[in-house]
Amino acid sequence: MRPDPMSKLVLIGLCTGLLACAERQAEYYIDQLSDPRSQIRLDASHALVQLGGATVEPLIEHCAGAGDSLQYIAAQILGQIGDHRATPFLKDMVADDNRYVREQAVRALGQLANPRLVPNLEAPLFTDSVADVRKAAAWSMGNLRDTTAVTPLIRALEDSVAAVRQQALAALQFLWTPAAEAAAIAALEDPDGSVRYVAAQMLGHHRIRKALDPLFTALNDNNIWVRVESARALGKIGDTTAVAKLERMFSSREGPDQEAAQEALQQLTGLNYTVAPE
């Protein structure tokens, strides 16, 4: 049965009408983004995200050249919608004078699911003077899930700020390559405990046997949570050469150290290690 041409025209008309209605709704909520009441602005932001694609062009048009607070909110909304039409607008915002606008624009680019944006994140990752912007760039590179980001993320492990190094390392979790593996092993010697903790966590998650010796060393780290995560990692890796060192940790330490060693030993041996009564 051939489709009725009139039915097609009716359907097209309905779709056009619905789109126009959605765009009018978007314009209504966009106006509310400037309301002095925070709850009104928050509700409007949520509504615009729900409207999806109908929001993108009216929002960009409204916010072009607007003040910092409105541009920040716009970047946040556009990132959550994830529509590629926002790309040029967000790229321009990466160079904004306001640090918070830059940070949100960089984060939004990472939500667009376009691996070709990795090169656009290198400048904020390496040259922005604000650590939070560099951290956001590292997060976005990981979120784009493209291995072209591995090399810049490894380079970011030399950043002077620990939080940036930690985020760059965490991003490599999603881009696991031999180079990322080597970088995670090397990060067990990072001067900051939070970075060493993430390194141990990643090596355990991926069950990297090459990391056994560095993890043995990390059992004596001066940071308790690095020691704990290293013990857990050894349990996950499953190599019984770790048993003697974990037994030493179990018998010589207390609290979280002892509990982590106990858990790892049970994984490796199947035995139930218990603390001797005093």
Rough outline: elongated
CA gyration radius, whole angstroms: 25 Å
Task: Report the helical percentage.
Answer: 55-70%
Characterize the main sheet: none
What brief labels describe this structure?
single chain, 69% helix, 278 residues, mainly alpha, Leucine-rich Repeat Variant
If you had to describe this structure to a student in words, what would you say it looks like?
With 278 residues, the chain is mainly α. It has 16 helices and no strands. The chain has helices at 5-32, 38-51, 53-63, 68-81, 87-93, 99-109, 118-127, 131-143, 150-155, 162-172, 178-186, 193-205, 212-218, 224-237, 243-252, 255-269. The protein is elongated, with a radius of gyration of 25 Å.
In short:
This protein has 16 helices and no strands.
Task: Reconstruct the topology from this structure.
Blueprint: H1 5-32, H2 38-51, H3 53-63, H4 68-81, H5 87-93, H6 99-109, H7 118-127, H8 131-143, H9 150-155, H10 162-172, H11 178-186, H12 193-205, H13 212-218, H14 224-237, H15 243-252, H16 255-269
